[in-house]
Amino acid sequence: MKKTYILLSAFLFSGLVSGQQILDPLLKAKALNLAGKPGESVKILTEAIDKQKDGRLLLERAETYLSGGKYSEAIADYNSVNLLKRQSGEYGLAKAYALKGDAATSVYHLEMNMKSPFRKSEKEILLDPAFRKIENQPEWRRFWKGEWYSLTEKSISEIEYYTSQGRVDDAASILTGLKRNYPDEEAVKYGESLINISAGKYAEAVKTLSDLLASSPDNEKYLRLLATAQSGSSNAAGASLTYSKMLDLEIADADLYIQRAECYRKTGETEKAISDIEKYLSLYPEDRVALSMAGKLNFLSGDNIAALRYFSENLRIHPNDPACYVDRANSYFSSKSWNWAIKDYSMALDLEPGNPEVWLNKGISLLNSGKKDDACHDFRKAFNLGNKRATDYLSRHCIR
Fold first, then answer.
1. Count of H helices and E strands in the chain?
2. Residue range 26-54: average pLDDT?
3. What is this structure's pTM?
């Protein structure tokens, strides 16, 4: 397994050797493709490929072509990737031919992928929609009669499934057998880390993953788990360093900026958090979570005008989301703009009338704007919905 990841790293991070950065064009291209702009995505990738013929850029352009139904162009790029690194484009070729309905050629390339360092897991293949067109073909059925995965690999897949479902005991039962037969395998230690994280044993997971990363420092799967374990153990500073490591490795996942921003927020590094959120929003300007986070971070930094701008933009894009109204209302509330807060809290309650915290805050806003009777109505609603803080307001202002 270690050899596989070394080979993967040699290919995936070859761009670092020449000192050229490819992360930005990859992220921009992914965002544009998701936004339904494949032409612009291809343009950015082509410009980047002209400067540096990196395998990841070619793979991303091939995926963009594939999603747009341009199978010939995608196949050409996957073949180019194979020339850069032998067998690295085989899985893409298998997908392309499957989408063309050519089961025999698709399975041929899938078998080539299974014999390569870039082999996909059983779960990845079975869940890939690209193969739906050929899954009833005899070639596809014959492929799955082969013994492509070891007992350890199959067991780890089961552990991944069980932990994703919160079935820790079932996962632990499988791990017991693995540890008995393969105590020193990396895969077994990875499975143990998954179980420890699911069970809330974050310190144990951090130790195991740190040991694994000592010999495989660029392993993305281990790094992601380590960041999760560090966050779970309230080590936001450590998690932010792990997310930075992944970004330094040019892992093209914009969510890493969101995750690191949350760590920076927890460590009080607000300006760094804002910078990460702005980077994410430059790629996904309409993302509800990111806009909300940007508003809250700007409020924390003392820039309420910027906060309101983000909250208002979020409302413009998501006018039927009560959380967006609550965000802006809370900002007005904190700046004692009571009438504006009342309006937004009212809109939030129209959409979600069962929120006790909003009823309480609206009541406080009404009280401060001189509308005591209306405030008492809201305090009672908050109390009836389970907000215990409303008791104090009721006793002080509403019991005659």
1. 24, 0
2. 96
3. 0.88
